[in-house]
């Protein structure tokens, strides 16, 4: 149990900011109109389509968790990506390639998706690169479209799995981090995986049982305002497909609460914060690992990566 020390300064700040952030920490959306989110699952397989990652969707838990924000989550029919080199996501650049390189529908993405509108593209892979010596179970852009899930999440709770990882990563795409808007408590959905109480049954997800995976009023308001949600359930996409980006995004340092750096006016490279969720010790050392051999990249993708690396060298 954590004992909080309430100081007058804290109470004053909390009172002054009551219109924006809830001091109670627990949200309620009973009077809010429903908003809608669609997820495009993408199952990654080897080149021949014989060896595939598991589709660990945890649909019921994801829908129940986000129901407290009056956000209805629907899962589209899965797409399949046959590409051996993406069965393991070895570094941030590889995730950026999946998320943003190529045209509409590349790498199994939903053709209606954009960087800031749904459906949300969610890849299911075998492994994700280690972060600070810990195996990464999920990885998501903050306030941008793209999630990757390791099927290792099914190894927990005696095979029941980590029921809330998909919902947690979805929260990152909707703009939420591990510490903002009231997260950080053991029962909050957006708290880092090693510090969060993970439900072993649907009956312990808020508003039932142990009331786990809660969202604060501030988290609810911020997530509902995301462009990845929509008011009309019949509208799957947002702004429609976009053209090929000129460069891959330059990623912020992938610390648990990384803050995007300020861009110089002379560069066109976009900074995007990346939020990993690490849960247990890995056997290999931390940091980016070499990309394994696999199918050759397209000329477009190769050009994008070359531009990205050139920009990196200039900044160095």
Secondary structure layout plus pairing:
Blueprint lengths: L7 H9 L18 E11 L13 H9 L3 E5 L3 E4 L5 E2 L2 H9 L19 E6 L1 E2 L5 E8 L5 E4 L14 H9 L43 H8 L25 E2 L19 E2 L1 E8 L17 H17 L1
Parallel strand pairs: 1-2, 1-3, 1-5, 4-6, 5-8, 9-10
Antiparallel strand pairs: 7-8, 7-11
What does this structure look like?
The chain is α/β, with parallel strands linked by helices. It has a domain at 35-228: Collagenase (Catalytic Domain) (3-Layer(aba) Sandwich), CATH 3.40.390.10. It contains 6 helices and 11 strands. It has helices at residues 8-16, 59-67, 92-100, 165-173, 217-224, 299-315; strands spanning 35-45, 71-75, 79-82, 88-89, 120-125, 127-128, 134-141, 147-150, 250-251, 271-272, 274-281. Strands 1, 2, 3, 5, 7, 8 and 11 form a 7-stranded mixed beta sheet that branches. Strands 4-6 form a two-stranded parallel ribbon. β7 (134-141) and β8 (147-150) form a beta hairpin. The radius of gyration is 19 Å and the shape is globular. The termini are far apart. GO terms for molecular function: metallopeptidase activity. Pfam families: Reprolysin_3 (PF13582). InterPro entries: MetalloPept_cat_dom_sf (IPR024079).
């Amino acid at each position: 149990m954590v004992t909080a020390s309430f100081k007058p300064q804290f109470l004053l700040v909390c009172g002054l900011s009551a219109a924006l952030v809830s001091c109670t920490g627990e949200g309620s959306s009973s009077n809010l109109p429903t908003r809608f989110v669609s997820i495009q699952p993408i199952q990654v397989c080897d080149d021949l389509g014989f060896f595939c990652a598991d589709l660990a969707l945890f649909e019921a838990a994801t829908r129940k968790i986000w129901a407290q924000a009056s956000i209805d989550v629907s899962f589209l029919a899965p797409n399949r990506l046959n590409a051996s080199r993406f069965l393991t996501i070895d570094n941030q650049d590889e995730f950026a390639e999946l998320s943003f390189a190529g045209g509409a529908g590349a790498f199994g993405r939903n053709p209606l998706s954009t960087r800031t509108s749904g459906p949300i593209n969610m890849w299911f892979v075998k492994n994700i690169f280690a972060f600070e010596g810990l195996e990464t179970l999920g990885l998501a852009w903050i306030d941008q479209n793209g999630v990757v899930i390791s099927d290792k999440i099914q190894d927990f709770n005696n095979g029941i799995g980590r029921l809330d990882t998909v919902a947690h990563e979805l929260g990152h795409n909707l703009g939420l981090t591990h510490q903002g808007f009231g997260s950080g408590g053991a029962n909050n959905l957006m708290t880092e995986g090693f510090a969060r109480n993970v439900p072993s049954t649907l009956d312990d997800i808020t508003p039932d049982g142990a009331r786990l995976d809660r969202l604060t009023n501030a988290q609810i308001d911020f997530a509902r305002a995301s462009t990845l949600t929509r008011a009309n359930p019949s509208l799957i996409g947002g702004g429609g497909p976009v053209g090929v980006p000129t460069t891959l995004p330059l990623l912020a340092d992938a610390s648990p609460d990384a803050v995007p750096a300020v861009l110089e006016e002379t560069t066109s490279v976009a900074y995007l914060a990346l939020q990993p969720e690490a849960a247990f010790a890995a056997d290999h050392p931390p940091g980016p690992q070499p990309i394994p051999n696999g199918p050759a990249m397209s000329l477009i993708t190769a050009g994008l990566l070359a531009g990205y690396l050139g920009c990196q060298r200039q900044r160095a």
